[in-house]
Amino acid sequence: MYDDMGTPVHLPRPPRRVVSLVPSLTEALAGTGVLVGATDWCTHPADLGVSRVRGTKNPDRAAIAALAPDLVIANKEENRELDVARLRAAGVPVWVTVVETVPQALDSLGRLFTQALRVAEPGWLGEARELWGGAPAPVTATVAVPVWRDPWMVVGGSTFTGDLLRRAGLANVFDGDARGRYPRVEAAEIRADAVLLPDEPYVFTAEDGPEMFPGRTVRLVSGRSLTWYGPSLVAAHDMLARLAAGI
Prior knowledge:
Elements: E1 18-20, H1 23-29, E2 35-38, E3 51-52, H2 61-66, E4 71-75, H3 81-89, E5 94-97, H4 102-117, H5 123-132, E6 141-144, E7 146-148, E8 152-154, H6 160-167, E9 170-172, E10 184-185, E11 194-198, E12 217-221, H7 223-227, H8 232-246
């Protein structure tokens, strides 16, 4: 079988000891009973009782190996190629996901459950397919989504977040920006009907960010609702519909 990168992954039997290096996939797999390890950034579900293996960009490979996993799950954007290569070199199978659109996320999740883990798709995935499987909603507003400050960085094109917003009727003004998927910008460039300030990876608060955009609509939003693919896709649908209607 092959992961989303097209890399063969040899799994002679269904994995029963899995380590997740992707917070959204940790949440997605929490109900399978196979998770034995996750990163320090894996905050959902709140009562997840597994070993921690440090961060997404600096995983403790020795701690991962000590857990004797049948499979490690990573993501092309979230994790470093070097860590994936070294885990594989140590004999640990790694399944890498690639997600830049909502349909891609839904298909990737389906393959992860049915092909990699060889379990049935969870009910929330079917619900997410129904909610997000139709045509994108008509555009009702333009938005910009900063993800870092000092320097300012925003969500650009070919991103899951941008596609999620567009399907909810919100057009990302930095979609197609020639500077890349997460361009560095000046604050004065961040102009849209609304500026959405998520709480990850940078924790924007009411005291940090909104004051940079006087006279413009600014919303503090859940980063999990904008960037995670998994059970949060269901809740994100209603949240983004309300947001689009209120801008």
